[in-house]
Design brief:
The structure holds 2 protein chains of 2 kinds. Helix content of chain A is 55%, strand content 20%. Chain A has helices spanning 3-26, 30-46, 56-67, 73-81, 90-113, 173-187, 190-206, and strands at 120-129, 132-141, 146-157, 160-168, 171-172. By secondary structure, chain B is mainly alpha-helical. Chain B has helices spanning 2-15, 42-70, 73-86, 88-97, 101-116, 126-130, 139-145, 164-176, 185-206, 210-216, 221-238; strands spanning 153-156, 160-163. The chains are: A alpha+beta, B mainly alpha. At the A-B interface, helix 5, strand 5, helix 6 and helix 7 of A face helix 2, helix 10 and helix 11 of B.
Chain lengths: 214, 239
C-alpha cells in the first residue's frame, strides 16, 4: 500500500470513528433527555404504590432519584453564588452544593404535591448552539385552565447534556436565587448565608405543606 | 390634580439621572455580575413591601377567601375577563404608540366582539372565533420602547413592585381612561376604586397560593419578589 493510500484510509477511518462518537453523544437530544426524565418522574407520581400522604417521603425520594441525573447540581449551586464562589474553600463549596440542592428539593416538593395525572407537558422549541441548549416547554393544568411556561437551559459536560438553569414564567431560578444570596452576602457574612439556608431547610421540613412565615 | 402631581414627581425622579438596566435576556455568566440589583430606594421600598404583605395577609386574603367560597371558579374567570375587556383603551393606545398596528386593530376587534357576543366581556369569543389574542401593552412598556430608562426599583403601596418609569406609565394609563372626562371626581374615585378592588379580590381568589409560594420559594422574600418582577418585566418589554 502506498503511503498516500494509507494516510487516506487512516483519515477516513478516524473520521468515521469521530462521527459515530459524535452521533452517539448527540442521540440523546436535550428535549428527549428532559422528556424521559419527566416520564420517569410521572411514573413514580402516578404509581398507586406511592399515593397518599403517608407515602410522601418515599415518593419524593423516588422522584429525586429519577431526575437527579439530568441536573448539573454543582453548576447550578456555583452560579447562584456567582462571584462569591471562587473565594470559598473546596470544603465550603462542597457543603454549599449539598445545602443548596437540599433547599431546592424541599422547596419544590410542595409543587409535586400539586401534581395531577391530567397535567400536560408540551415541548415547544429546542435551540442548540455548540455546547449550550435551551428547551422551551409548557405545563398545562386543564382543570384550572392554567398554563405556565417552563424553559430549561442545558450545557454539555463530557458529551452529556445537563440542566444548569430552569426558567419558570420568564423568571430564571439561578438569577432569582443569586439576587437573594447577593443581598444577604452584601450585608452579612458567608457563614450567615449558610445559617439562613439551613434554617430555611429546617422550616420547610417542619411545615412541608404550607408557607413558612405568612 | 393628584394625578398631575404624581406625574410631575415621577418625571422629576426619572430625569434626575438614575440609570438601572433591567434588560437581561441571557443568563449572565457566573462571574460577571458583581452586585445585587441596585436598590437606591430600598429605605422606602422595604417598609412599603412589609405593608403590602400585611395588607395581603389581613385584608385581601381573608376577603378573597370568602369570595372564593361563594363564587364558582368559572364565574371568577369570567369576572377577570370582564375587567380585562375594560382595559381596551390603554392596550389599543399603547400598541399604537409602539407601532404595533395589527395588534391595535385586534384590540378594537376583541372589544367589539367580546362586548357584544361575549356577554359584555365575560366570555372571550374573539380568540376562538378569529384567533385575536390580547396584546397587553401599557405605557410603561411604551416608554421603554422609546428608550426611557427604567429608573430605580420602586414598591408601590397596594400595587406592589414597580419601577419609576412603570409608575409614570401607570399614572399615564390612568389618565387615558375616558371615564376621567365625563365623571365627577367622586364618581370617578368610586368607579375606579370599585373596579380596582373587585379586580384585586377576584385575582387573589384565583391565585390563593400566591404569597405562600413566594414565601416558600425564597430565602430572602424581598429580593425574590424584586428579582422576579424585574425579570418578568424585562421579558414583557422585549415582546
Amino acid at each position: 500500500m502506498t503511503r498516500l493510500r494509507l494516510a487516506f484510509l487512516s483519515i477516513v477511518g478516524i473520521s468515521a470513528l469521530a462521527l459515530s462518537a459524535q452521533a452517539w453523544a448527540a442521540s440523546g437530544s436535550p428535549t428527549e433527555l428532559i422528556r424521559a426524565g419527566i416520564d420517569r418522574a410521572r411514573s413514580v407520581l402516578d404509581n398507586p404504590a406511592y399515593q397518599g400522604t403517608d407515602k410522601r417521603q418515599q415518593r419524593l425520594e423516588k422522584v429525586k432519584e429519577s431526575v437527579i441525573s439530568i441536573f448539573d447540581s454543582q453548576e447550578i449551586a456555583k452560579r447562584t453564588l456567582g462571584v462569591y464562589w471562587k473565594d470559598r474553600t473546596e470544603a465550603e463549596q462542597k457543603e454549599f452544593i449539598e445545602i443548596f440542592t437540599a433547599l431546592v428539593e424541599k422547596t419544590y416538593a410542595s409543587s409535586l404535591d400539586r401534581y395531577r395525572k391530567d397535567f400536560q407537558v408540551v415541548f415547544d422549541q429546542e435551540r442548540i448552539e455548540g455546547n449550550d441548549a435551551e428547551v422551551d416547554s409548557r405545563i398545562i393544568n386543564p382543570t384550572q385552565q392554567k398554563t405556565f411556561s417552563l424553559n430549561y437551559r442545558l450545557h454539555q459536560v463530557n458529551g452529556k447534556w445537563l440542566i444548569y438553569d430552569v426558567v419558570i414564567e420568564n423568571v430564571s431560578l439561578v438569577r432569582n436565587y443569586r439576587n437573594q444570596f447577593y443581598r444577604i452576602l452584601g450585608k452579612k457574612s458567608y457563614t450567615d448565608l449558610v445559617e439562613t439556608i439551613r434554617t430555611k431547610i429546617q422550616q420547610l421540613d417542619t411545615a412541608p405543606q404550607t408557607g413558612t412565615g405568612l | 390634580m393628584v394625578v398631575q402631581l404624581l406625574f410631575a414627581l415621577c418625571l422629576g425622579l426619572l430625569s434626575s439621572g438614575f440609570s438601572v438596566s433591567t434588560a437581561l435576556a441571557q443568563p449572565a455568566p457566573a462571574d460577571s455580575v458583581p452586585e445585587p440589583t441596585p436598590d437606591p430606594l430600598e429605605g422606602f421600598n422595604q417598609p412599603v413591601f412589609q405593608l403590602n404583605l400585611k395588607l395581603d395577609q389581613y385584608v385581601l386574603r381573608p376577603i378573597a377567601t370568602g369570595y372564593d367560597a361563594v363564587m364558582p371558579d368559572a364565574v371568577q374567570r369570567g369576572v377577570q375577563r370582564f375587567l380585562r375587556n375594560l382595559g381596551v383603551v390603554e392596550r389599543f393606545a399603547n400598541n399604537l404608540f409602539q407601532g404595533k398596528f395589527p395588534r391595535a386593530g385586534q384590540e378594537v376587534g376583541r372589544f367589539l366582539v367580546n362586548t357584544t357576543l361575549g356577554g359584555v366581556g365575560f366570555v372571550d369569543v374573539a380568540d376562538p372565533l378569529f384567533g385575536w389574542k390580547e396584546s397587553p401593552e401599557d405605557f410603561g412598556q411604551t416608554l421603554a420602547v422609546y428608550g426611557v430608562d427604567s429608573g430605580p426599583y420602586l414598591v408601590l403601596p397596594f400595587y406592589g413592585p414597580s419601577t419609576v418609569r412603570d409608575t409614570v406609565g401607570l399614572v399615564a394609563d390612568s389618565a387615558m381612561n375616558p371615564m376621567n372626562y365625563f365623571l365627577s371626581t367622586i364618581q370617578l374615585l368610586a368607579v375606579r376604586g370599585g373596579t380596582t378592588v373587585v379586580g384585586a379580590v377576584n385575582y387573589r381568589s384565583l391565585n390563593p397560593e400566591l404569597f405562600e409560594d413566594v414565601d416558600r420559594y425564597s430565602v430572602d422574600l424581598y429580593g425574590a419578589v424584586q428579582d422576579g418582577y424585574l425579570q418578568r418585566r424585562a421579558k414583557q418589554i422585549e415582546e
